[in-house]
């Protein structure tokens, strides 16, 4: 769980990072957040307690951790390769599809208390949402708000789960560097959040 003070700090940090985006992107992301911000700031990062951040606000908290981890990885592995605003963008929005699709939230509270207690299944996938994978829902939502992606950003988001997703096998050993960094940052952040 996250207290209100932490939620406000996360909101402030997202606003600060978005304010550093280049003009065109900043305005489009701001417009998107005006529409879906509530979902972004309230969504969990996963559906089960044994995964990571399976609580309201978990997605935003996870995304901020990924963005900060990306920055640290770049500093140590490939200094100044990408501008900070680009790392913040892919970190903050790599899992945007966890908000849902077209106003239908992805995760709905599991009303079965037994499943919550015994299986840790805190949320169900919303059957009323058009089914999309998280990366497809992410890219769909970004394009819906006319937020352009570079080829490297597109693939980084698409490959954020690395080879854990069978569809990504064709990219093995050919991932773009930003995709590798995002995957490592996502994986590291997820493992830390499970502790």
What does this protein look like?
56% of the residues lie in helices and 3% in strands. It has 195 residues and is mainly α. It has a single domain (4-194), classed as Hypothetical protein af1432 (Orthogonal Bundle). It has a two-stranded antiparallel sheet with strand order 1-2. α1 packs antiparallel against α2, α3 packs antiparallel against α4 and α3 crosses α8. The radius of gyration is 16 Å and the shape is globular. The chain starts with a helix and ends with a helix. 37% of the residues are buried.
Give unreliable regions as ranges.
none
CATH architecture: Orthogonal Bundle
For the termini, the CA-CA separation is 13 Å
Tally of contiguous helical segments: 8
Number of strands: 2
Shape summary: globular
| Residues in helix, % | 55-70%
Question: Regarding CATH, which class?
Answer: Mainly Alpha
* CATH topology label: Hypothetical protein af1432
Describe the largest sheet. Answer: 2 strands, antiparallel
Strand order of the largest sheet: 1-2
Q: Helix and strand string, N-terminal first?
A: HHHHEHEHHH
Give the number of domains. Answer: 1
Q: Rounded to an integer, what's the Rg over CA atoms?
A: 16 Å
Structural class: mainly alpha
Rounded average pLDDT = 94
* Strand content bin: under 5%
């Amino acid at each position: 769980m996250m207290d209100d003070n932490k939620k406000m700090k996360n909101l402030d940090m997202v606003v600060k990072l978005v304010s550093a985006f280049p003009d065109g992107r900043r305005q489009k992301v701001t417009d998107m957040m005006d529409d879906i911000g509530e979902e972004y700031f309230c969504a969990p990062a996963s559906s089960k307690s044994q995964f990571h951040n399976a609580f309201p606000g978990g997605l935003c908290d996870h995304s901020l951790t990924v963005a900060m981890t990306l920055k640290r990885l770049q500093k140590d592995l490939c200094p100044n390769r990408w501008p900070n605003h680009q790392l913040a963008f892919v970190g903050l929005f790599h899992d945007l599809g966890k908000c849902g699709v077209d106003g239908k939230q992805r995760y709905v509270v599991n009303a079965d208390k037994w499943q919550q207690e015994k299986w840790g299944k805190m949320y169900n996938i919303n059957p009323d949402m058009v089914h999309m994978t998280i990366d497809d829902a992410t890219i769909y939502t970004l394009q819906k708000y006319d937020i352009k992606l570079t080829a490297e950003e597109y693939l980084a988001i698409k490959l954020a789960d690395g080879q854990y997703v069978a569809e990504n096998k064709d990219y093995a050993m050919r991932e773009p560097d930003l995709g590798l960094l995002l995957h490592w940052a996502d994986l590291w952040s997820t493992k830390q959040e499970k502790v």
